[in-house]
Amino acid sequence: MFSHESVLLLQVALALYLGAALVQVFLLGGERPALRRCALILTGIAFAAQTLYLGAAWIQEGYLPVTNLFSTLFFFSWAMGGTFLYFELRYRIGAAGLFVLGLTMLLLVGALRRGPMISPLIPALDTPLFTMHVAFSFMGYAMFAMAFSVAMAYLMPRFLRPPSMPARDLLRRHNEEAILLGFVFFSVCMITGSIWAYVAWGHWFSWNIKGVWSFIVWLFYAGMCHAKFVRRWQGEGYALLSIAGFGIVLFTYLGIGLLLQSNHPLE
């Protein structure tokens, strides 16, 4: 599976995502139900292709294939594709999710540039807790990315807003839902990670840089779940917090993994 066929499958997914994004850009000029369905179908097939690759890799390796930079970039893009489909099917966010589609493609391009190679899983990670920890981590990241995308749409000046953009009140609620779901997913990630660390190494938390910044991410979004009830942080303030939060997420995922030494290196 990790040869020409796997590369071709991921390239097909990338082409389909690109087609969906181009259709979404075309829809900025106005609502066209047939084109919207086309964009949704393209995205759905692309996500299905990624899911097929993920399932085949999981079966072949015997564990969730998220052990190096290629596999984490791929899994992040997969989670992003699923997040976009959830919001599009439920709310028809259209143009508000363009950033998510763009980031999905960017992550997939980064994965393809690395090549579909999956590192062996060390014995300490060979546990269902590892699977849950990693899966819920990236599901949380994907929701935080959606919140970023919706926040950017919310802050767009009125004269630049395309006709297909959802109303600001709807964008605000989409942002809040993405933050809440992301916080729930990331909380599960932190809980399973703590249990896993205790089972593997005998402690619930260690002061390594990855652990500290993961806790900062959790604390930041816990604060955001509270901030939506504070009048001065509602609206534009909440959108700005969503943008800042995703910056912290990117640093925690890529900045630490690539630039600093930690127990979560990306190679």
Automatic annotation (TrEMBL):
Transmembrane regions: 6-27, 39-60, 66-86, 93-112, 132-157, 178-199, 211-230, 237-260
Pfam families: Cytochrom_C_asm
Coiled coil segments of this chain: none
UniProtKB keywords: Cytochrome c-type biogenesis, Membrane, Transmembrane, Transmembrane helix
Domain Cytochrome c assembly protein: 67-261
Membrane association type: Multi-pass membrane protein
Location of the protein in the cell: Membrane
Keyword Phosphoprotein tagged: no
Protein name: Cytochrome c biogenesis protein CcsA
Main location: membrane
PANTHER family hit by this protein: CYTOCHROME B_B6 PROTEIN-RELATED, HEME EXPORTER PROTEIN C
